[in-house]
Specification:
The complex is a heterodimer of chains A (563) and B (205). Chain A has 563 residues and is mostly helical. Chain A has a single domain, classed as Up-down Bundle (Cytochrome C Oxidase, Chain A). Chain A contains 17 helices and 2 strands. In chain A, strands 1-2 form a two-stranded antiparallel ribbon. Chain B is an all-alpha fold. Chain B has one domain: Four Helix Bundle (Hemerythrin (Met), subunit A), CATH 1.20.120. The chains are: A mainly alpha (563), B mainly alpha (205).
Chain lengths: 563, 205
């Protein structure tokens, strides 16, 4: 035993320092510094905002039932889709994928006892719910009406809530930046001994590629939001052309953030899929290094393509070509991932669990959204499709069919680890099929609408589209039922689900080798790692985990302070 | 592993290992914070250069060149404070407390002098030349926003260094454990470097 402790002292690093477990409810569940609790806080808060933003989406679909609208007036309709988009991007998808799953899963996967700065982590989280409430509260003073992108001059003339929107998104940005710094330092410095970069699970690689985006891109957005806020509140001219400013400047500043943000919203989902596939095919992932490096390549390229959102904004022709080509280049690392996943399926013993169904569904819908993305990167096509429902279809295929499917796959995969209980597979199957059918029914026809010229963000439309819009609205109800089933499944299983045990899926990454839910300090002894986790033919590549599932007492705070 | 080698090195120096590793994490986190701060400045610098080159009336009528000579003197004050900060940290490492305190106080005073100089410049621009934040087109907007942000950073730095001075007087730091001073020095040099860029884009080009 003594030798074991000694070995650990020389390998484990800061991870060995254990704080006593908090005893009061407030310190344990509210102002917790435990990365697992903070992750769950993000997930719960994110899903609450998801329900609110989803209700707004249903109002949009209700309005679209008739060509003349009639549910809400045009101004309110503008407010609703603007807040729906902003909330889904900043309050749902980004916090769930980074703050939620990132916080809960990746420190366990690298064998750390917490993130590098637990107090900063708590601060990051507690900035987020007030910012979200501010965004929804902007309805009280006239919500923003220029869409989630808030282009000037419309946003300059917008109602008072637009300034509130600036402040809310700025705060979410601060939270993201701090999370990015925290995650990056954690991954760089706090891996368990032997966990080299090429032995990290692919979800960790995905977070490693995402963290710099969170840190750098979000700060650039903060600059843009501060400028818009100053212009609206103090009349400082940045974007108003009558005072020498330029509305196109906003588009540059906004998209310099928001294009990388697209990858913030998809890379962690890629990471989840890369965990789920090997587990449920019982096969090593195909092309481990290519998947890992392509995440980094996507993150780097993501900074060089922002102006492809601006082909119709008077961008000089000599600038359009490089942005078009660089955008198309992103299809290469993305394609590498898709092919690697599909090749992982080949010859595997596939288990169609709900998580796996969502992961396979993800491949189908995300690839579809990715291909329409390649369409849109071509300048001539973009000139035709810009500002139509084709864009709405494309972005929902990557954000709902990509990110949200990833989140649902991840929820079904990691729920046993989070709660110690299984989700009902039967309800899960219904969830998946209803969601998949409802989703495609809602958004697939939008491609056609867009190509036929139906503009986005309109409260009334040409009556020739009424039939297809009604079809989409009914399909969106199917999608809503699927999500209600999912929430029912989560709430029911929390109490009545089957006990999960430490490793219900037979997965090989570190988080599955410890009890569910994990102890406060994660690992009794920080493990040593000998190989990447995915080789199902080999024994587990870890030592130091022998005591995890026994009754032996965990590490004691008093003894560690003497180290 | 870098962490382990630093830790072992420090064990020879008699510093406990936990501190060494925590310092390592903090240093990296602090550097990343500075990187994100650079991005924040960059977005406004980009905005200024973009608007300036978009050909919509730059420079705005009625605004001559800025007073380069005065700003240069003021820059020397700030760069001088960077030197004194460097010597403050070096003296701390060598255990010369009095020289350390002298250099740190000099840094704080020079920082305040820089802020005073900037206040004087703002005053003469606003009162004599009628250049304002919101009323002078993109020049006023960019100049006051960027130099104001920088001035705010200097102000925060002065407060930070004052706290460090008090802490070191009260024995918070030792010859081996002084991460706060390292961070303060890094921050102060960062503020200097930002000023080099701002001086170039507003006064020189």
């Amino acid at each position: 035993m003594q030798t074991h402790e000694q070995a650990e002292l020389h390998g484990g690093g800061v991870a060995d320092h254990i704080h006593p477990e908090p005893q009061t409810f407030v310190r344990k569940y509210i102002f917790s510094i435990d990365h697992k609790i903070i992750g769950l806080q993000y997930i719960i808060t994110g899903f609450v905002f998801f329900i609110l933003a989803g209700l707004l989406a249903e109002v949009i679909r209700a309005q679209m039932m008739h060509a003349t609208g009639g549910v809400v007036d045009s101004n309110t309709y503008d407010e609703i889709y603007s807040v729906h988009g902003s909330a889904m991007v900043w309050l749902v998808v980004i916090p769930l994928l980074t703050g939620g799953f990132g916080n809960f899963v990746f420190p366990l996967q690298i064998g750390a006892r917490d993130v590098a700065f637990p107090w900063l982590n708590m601060l990051s989280f507690w900035i987020f719910p007030p910012a979200g409430l501010m965004l929804f509260a902007s309805f009280l003073m006239g919500a923003p009406q220029a869409g989630w992108t808030e282009y000037p001059p419309m946003s300059l003339q917008g109602q008072a809530g637009t300034s509130m929107w600036c402040a809310a998104i700025f705060l979410v940005g601060v939270s993201s930046t701090l999370t990015g710094i925290n995650f990056l330092v954690t991954i760089l410095k706090m891996r368990a001994p032997g966990m080299t970069f090429t032995r990290m699970p692919l979800f960790v690689w995905a977070q490693f590629a995402t963290a710099p985006l969170l840190m750098i891109a979000t700060t650039a957005l903060a600059g843009a939001l501060a400028a818009l806020f100053m212009e609206r509140q103090f009349g400082v001219p940045f974007f108003d052309p009558t005072k020498g400013g330029s509305p196109v400047l906003w588009q540059h500043m906004f998209w310099f953030y928001s294009h990388p943000a697209v990858y913030i919203m998809i890379l962690p989902a890629f990471g989840m899929i890369s965990e789920i596939f090997p587990t449920f095919t019982r096969k090593p992932i195909f092309g481990y290094k290519m998947i890992a490096f392509s995440s980094v390549a996507i993150a780097l390229l993501g900074f060089m393509v922002w102006a492809h959102h601006m082909f119709t904004s008077g961008l000089a022709p000599w600038l359009q070509l490089p942005f078009m080509l660089l955008t198309m280049v992103i299809a290469i690392p993305t394609g590498i991932k898709i092919f690697s996943w599909v090749t992982t399926l080949w010859g595997g013993k596939i288990q169609f669990t709900t998580a796996m169904l969502f992961a396979i569904g993800f491949i189908a819908t995300f690839t579809f959204g990715g291909i329409t993305g390649v369409f849109l990167s071509a300048v001539p096509f973009d000139l035709h499709a810009h500002g139509t429902y084709f864009i709405v279809a494309h972005l929902h295929y990557v954000l709902v069919g990509g990110s949200l499917m990833g989140i649902l796959a991840g929820m079904h995969y990691w729920f046993p680890k989070m709660s110690g209980r299984m989700l009902s597979e039967k309800v899960g199957r219904w969830t998946f099929w209803l969601f998949f059918i409802g989703f495609n029914g809602t958004f697939l026809p939008m491609h056609w609408q867009g190509l036929m010229g139906m503009p986005r963000r309109v409260a009334q439309y040409d009556p020739q589209f009424q039939g297809v819009n009604q079809f989409e609205s009914y399909a969106s109800v199917v999608m809503t039922i699927a999500l209600l089933l999912f929430f029912y499944n989560v709430l029911w299983s929390l109490r009545h689900g089957k006990k999960a045990g430490p490793n219900p899926w037979g997965a090989r990454t570190l988080e599955w080798q410890i009890p569910s839910p994990p102890h406060y300090y994660n690992f009794k002894h920080v493990p040593t790692v000998f190989a990447a986790p995915y080789d199902f033919a080999e024994p587990l590549p870890y030592t130091g985990l022998e005591d995890e599932l026994t009754d032996s007492p965990g590490p004691q705070p008093a003894s560690s302070s003497s180290s | 592993m870098a962490v382990a080698s630093i830790a072992q090195h420090d064990e020879h120096q008699g510093v406990d290992r936990l501190y060494a590793e925590t310092r390592d994490l903090r240093l990296q986190g602090f550097l990343l914070f500075l990187v994100s701060d650079i991005v924040l400045f960059s977005s406004f610098i980009f905005a200024y250069l973009y608007l300036r080159n978009s050909g919509q009336g730059f420079p705005p009528p009625g605004i001559g060149r800025l007073d380069v000579a005065f700003a240069a003197y003021n820059s020397m004050v700030l760069f001088g404070s960077g030197c004194t900060m460097h010597y403050a940290l070096e003296n701390w490492k060598h255990g010369n407390f009095n020289k350390y305190a002298g250099c740190l106080i000099a840094t704080i005073v020079l920082g305040l002098m820089f802020l005073g100089g900037q206040g004087y410049e703002y005053h003469s621009l606003i009162v004599n030349d009628h250049v304002t934040w919101s009323g002078s087109g993109i020049f006023g907007a960019s100049f006051f926003t960027l130099t104001g942000m920088h001035g705010f950073h200097v102000f925060v730095g002065v407060c930070y260094l004052s706290i460090l001075l008090l802490q070191s007087v009260h024995g918070v730091y030792t010859k081996q454990k002084f991460f706060g001073l390292t961070a303060g020095t890094l921050y102060w040099h960062f503020v200097d470097v930002i000023w080099v860029v701002l001086f170039s884009i507003f006064y020189l080009i």
